[in-house]
Design brief:
Blueprint lengths: L2 H24 L32 E6 L2 E4 L3 E5 L3 E6 L3 H9 L2 E8 L3 E9 L2 E13 L2 E8 L11 H7 L16
Antiparallel strand pairs: 1-2, 3-4, 4-8, 5-6, 6-7, 7-8
């Protein structure tokens, strides 16, 4: 055989080898494996964790009872039961920022103030807080108040607890002169 005939014969043999499995699968044999699934469209790529969406506020390094303060706000006052922060951001954006980070028992919205009452911060669920977002001209104020009740002292009776607060069990004042 010549070289051209050899390469033509090799090509025909390769085509026959490829066509044989395809012909067998067309017969409808029950033993034939199912064809592989068609490739699906890849899901849309998600932005990296450290990036924010347009219009979304980024978390800052300071916190108020577990709630991260937005990066564009600064803490103006910090007390044992309240944190005040201000920044030149719209109150609507601050309220949306808070809304994604807390579970509120009640939300009250108004034209100049949004209140998240009986709320828990998702990152610190053991605390109860009250959050107020107030709009003041070009500035928004964020007020976070800790309303977590202290745990009761173990081993005290009901009468002893009332007495520690200066009252009788029926709510009367033990020593009226101490109120003056």
């Amino acid at each position: 055989m010549t070289r051209a005939r050899l390469s033509r014969a090799a090509a025909l043999a390769a085509c026959a080898a490829c066509a044989a499995p395809a012909a067998l699968s067309c017969r409808g044999d029950a033993d034939a494996p199912p064809p592989p699934p068609a490739p699906t469209a890849a899901p849309a790529p998600r932005p990296p964790v450290d990036q924010v969406l347009p219009g979304e506020l980024a978390e800052g390094v300071e916190q108020a009872f577990g709630l991260p303060i937005p990066r564009r706000m600064r803490v103006s006052a910090r007390f044992s039961d309240a944190v005040f922060a201000t920044g030149e951001i719209s109150a609507e954006r601050v309220a949306n920022y808070v809304r994604t980070r807390v579970l509120a028992g009640r939300v009250e919205t108004g034209p100049g103030k949004t209140i998240f009452a009986q709320a828990t911060v998702k990152s610190a669920p053991q605390r109860k807080v009250r959050i107020e977002v107030v709009s003041r001209a070009h500035v928004s104020e964020l007020v976070v108040r800790d309303e977590t009740r202290p745990p009761p002292e173990p081993g005290l009776s009901v009468e002893e607890r009332w007495r520690r607060h200066g009252l009788t069990p029926d709510g009367k004042v033990l020593d009226p002169t101490r109120l003056e």
